[in-house]
Write a structure and sequence with these properties.
The complex is a heterodimer of chains A (about 300) and B (about 425). Chain A has ten helices and 14 strands. Chain A is an alpha/beta fold. A six-stranded mixed β-sheet of chain A has the order 6-7-8-3-9-10, with helices on both faces. A four-stranded antiparallel β-sheet of chain A has the order 2-1-4-5, covered by helices on one side. Chain B is α/β, with parallel strands linked by helices and about 425 residues long. Chain B contains 16 helices and six strands. The chains are: A alpha/beta (about 300), B alpha/beta (about 425). At the A-B interface, helix 2 of A face helix 1, helix 7 and helix 15 of B. Chain B: InterPro entries: ABC-2_transporter_component, ABC2_TM.
Chain lengths: ~300, ~425
């Protein structure tokens, strides 16, 4: 799989403030790429560079193998975090205008808008003014405008803020569908659970530097802690716990069960296989719960940012 | 990609469809007409009132100069004492009493003449009376000293110097006046247009920021195109409004004249004009004015007016756009208004004080090339004859500065998005300008 977007050693300073420092990122074609980082890390600056709103001080950006140039504007769909629409314009007119700015003909834009408006069930808003819509409703229009010209690269900055769970899900499904239809998605957010759900690859930026990137699975594997959540029914919970503590590294578990079982997290050495542990446990009682503890993106995020 | 027509169209349509714009377009001429009608009505009211002035002329030398007019009736009193006359005027509620003492040898000072009234009389009434008495007494004095008044009148000469340039172009004093009026009107028109519609352009540039759509727009179009589109679109909306005002205004005027029977043209000044027209001396003047008009380089003037008006307007608009680009909201713009209006006022002053004195002097010439003042100053100079190359050069400078300012404004605009309230350093600004 080739890379649609290649960011190579990009640096950007605003006055004395260094917003990006030698950041390199590769976004594979057809993937959903999570751009993560705490507030003020430089994510938005990077996104703006890709959108040619600002130029990097040094470094290069290639889209589809070509050095970034103005003709790429119509190949990118961008939903910024700071977003709005012309308040006094009607929904349909405005969407047509913005689509035409992205290079669509009026007829084509109209056809596609009709399709999308029907799809998101907002067809009867065409003649409403934006100021008559709620924030969530306006966001839906913005989403349609972002994807309408069928861009190769979609960039969403906090796409779910302002949506209720139902609409957030709707948008999430649309993003996945766009990916399946061949679009590449860059996705910047603080909401780790949506990263977990959607992203194939991530890059973590902190204090202007990229500190982590790669496939989400690989990263998780890298952060694997070999710990298992165990729930077991025995006659004497305390005795078993002491027994386990003598053999393994044991800590308190956070998960919940229905009955009053012994709940612990057990960390294994490299030498011991999970099966060995399971066998041992079944000999002690009835195992109700046995799960490998995989670090969440949230944990990885917090851990890496803190260690950095 | 060239999105300029698209942007112009959107700017134009949003402006023109805006409710307050529509309301003002149709309300302004109505208000304006109503005001004129009201003033005309008031003037007529005033005219209907006839003043009654009693005259007590003790030596009976002057009274016959007071002839009854439409507005004033003179009541000549004979053989009454001052007290009796005053009592009479009070009783009959006359406007006032003019008392002229017994005169000896026609020598007189102002203490000899007194005007008594309940309310202080208008200046025009007093000067009218003074004029009449003065004329009569002067005449009487001249006669008393044995001077032939007819001879004096016949010896009077009226001089009106003919002016002609070496290549045979004739001018006159009246020419100068007409030229001045022409240039002044052009300058004033530009001034009004800029003040009314400049603000609109500025607000239009801020629109994307207040609606927070700026990042989406700026990732699709070049700021330069956006700025140009905004300036042109808003200007077209402004022109539409002015044209509607003119058409609607003249229709209203006609309707008002027919329906209300109020002749709006019949203001006192115009009546006076009409009366004056019948006077042969004034007729000569009118002839002069017509000649002066004929002497103007009309073709040049009309073309130059259109070009400099558009150029000047666009240039000032781009300054307003630059302000809009630099600030985040409208409240921050107030302080920038003065620096824009100042050069415009300066231009008008230079026009009136320098150009009229010496249309081709250094000051006039220099200021007719500086873009801030050239639209007004050059327009005022052209009636006096300016070589075409100068006009073209001045216009080129104007247009180049306009494009430069728009370009600069678009730089500021782009930097403005990224700064998050931080003040950009000059080095940073320079860098941005280069990009």
């Amino acid at each position: 799989m080739s890379n649609l977007l290649e960011v190579n050693g990009v640096s950007k300073k605003f006055g004395d403030f260094r917003a990006l420092n030698e950041v390199s990122v590769s976004v594979p074609e057809g993937s959903i790429f999570g751009l993560l980082g705490p507030n003020g890390a430089g994510k938005t600056t990077l996104i703006r560079i890709v959108n040619q709103i600002t130029m990097p001080d040094s470094g290069t950006v290639h889209l589809d193998g070509e050095l970034l140039n103005p003709s790429h504007i119509s190949a990118i769909g961008y939903l910024p975090e700071e977003r709005g629409l012309y308040k006094s314009m009607k929904v349909g007119e405005q969407a047509l205008y913005l689509a035409q700015l992205k290079g669509l003909s009026k007829a084509e834009a109209k056809k596609r808008l009709k399709y999308w408006f029907d799809r998101l069930e907002i067809g009867d808003w065409w003649n409403k003014k934006i100021e008559e819509l709620s924030k969530g409703m306006a966001q839906k229009v913005q989403f349609v405008v972002t994807v309408l010209h069928d861009p190769k690269l979609l960039i969403f900055d906090e796409p779910f803020s302002g949506f209720d769970p139902i609409n957030a899900n709707l948008i999430k499904d649309e993003i996945l569908r766009l990916r399946d239809n061949g679009a590449t998605v860059i996705f910047s957010t603080h909401r780790m659970e949506s990263v977990e759900e959607l992203c194939d690859e991530i890059a973590l930026i902190n204090k202007s530097n990229k500190i982590l990137d790669g496939k989400l699975v690989d990263i998780k594997r890298q952060y694997k802690i070999n710990t298992f959540e165990v729930g077991i029914r025995t006659s004497d919970n305390n005795q078993l716990r002491q027994e386990l503590e003598s053999k393994f590294e044991v800590s308190n578990a956070k998960f919940k069960t229905l009955d009053d079982e012994l709940k612990v997290n057990i960390k294994l050495d490299e030498a011991i296989k999970p099966n060995d542990l399971l066998n041992y446990l079944t000999s002690k009682g009835e195992v109700s719960h046995f799960v490998e503890l995989i670090p969440s993106v949230n944990d990885i995020f917090i851990q890496t940012v803190k260690n950095n | 990609m060239n999105h300029l027509p698209l942007i112009i169209k959107r700017e134009y349509l949003t402006k023109v469809r805006n409710k307050s714009f529509i309301i003002m377009t149709f309300l302004s001429p109505i208000i304006f007409m109503a005001l004129i009608a009201f003033v005309a009505y008031l003037t007529q009211l005033n005219n209907d009132k006839v003043r009654v002035i009693s005259v007590l002329d003790e030596s009976e030398l002057v009274y016959d100069v007071f002839k009854k007019t439409e507005q004033t009736t003179y009541n000549i009193l004979h053989g009454l004492s001052l007290e009796e006359a005053q009592a009479l005027v009070l009783e009959t509620e006359g406007t006032g009493l003019l008392h002229i003492h017994e005169l000896k040898d026609h020598t007189i000072d102002s203490q000899h003449i007194t005007f008594y009234s309940e309310e202080s009389p208008s200046i025009s009434l007093i000067s009218d009376i003074e004029n009449k008495v003065e004329k009569r007494l002067t005449r009487l004095n001249l006669q008393a000293n044995g001077v032939d008044v007819e001879m004096i009148n016949n010896s009077k000469v009226n001089i009106n110097i003919e002016q002609e340039s070496f290549d045979g172009e004739k001018t006159s004093k009246m020419d100068r006046l007409i030229k001045l009026i022409f240039g002044g009107a052009a300058g004033y028109l530009l001034f009004m247009f800029i003040i009314i519609y400049g603000n609109m352009i500025m607000r239009s540039v801020i629109e994307e920021k207040t609606n927070r759509i700026i990042e989406v727009i700026i990732s699709s179009v070049k700021p330069m195109q956006l700025m140009l589109g905004k300036i042109i679109g808003t200007s077209l909306a402004g022109i539409t409004q002015v044209v509607i005002w003119l058409i609607f205004g003249s229709v209203l005027m006609t309707v008002a004249t027919i329906v209300l029977g109020v002749d709006m043209a019949a203001t006192p000044q115009q009546q006076a004009m009409q009366q004056a027209m019948e006077n042969p001396e004034v007729n000569m003047q009118v002839q002069n004015i017509a000649n002066a008009f004929y002497h103007l380089p009309l073709t040049n003037l009309v073309i130059a007016f259109i070009l400099f008006f558009i150029g000047g307007y666009l240039f000032y608009s781009s300054l307003y756009a630059a302000i809009g680009a630099a600030v985040d909201n409208e409240t921050d713009t107030q302080q920038f208004m003065m620096p824009i209006i100042m050069p415009l006022i300066l231009a008008v002053y230079i026009g009136f004080f320098t150009v009229i004195e010496d249309p081709h002097g250094t000051v006039s010439t220099v200021f007719s090339f500086i873009p801030l003042t050239s639209p007004v100053v050059m327009l005022m100079r052209i009636p006096f004859g300016v070589p075409i190359w100068q006009q073209v050069l001045s216009l080129l400078i104007l247009v180049a500065t306009f494009i430069g300012t728009v370009w600069f404004a678009s730089k500021i605009y782009r930097v403005g998005i990224l700064m998050y309230g931080k003040k950009p350093s000059y080095r940073e600004l320079m860098k941005w300008i280069k990009y």
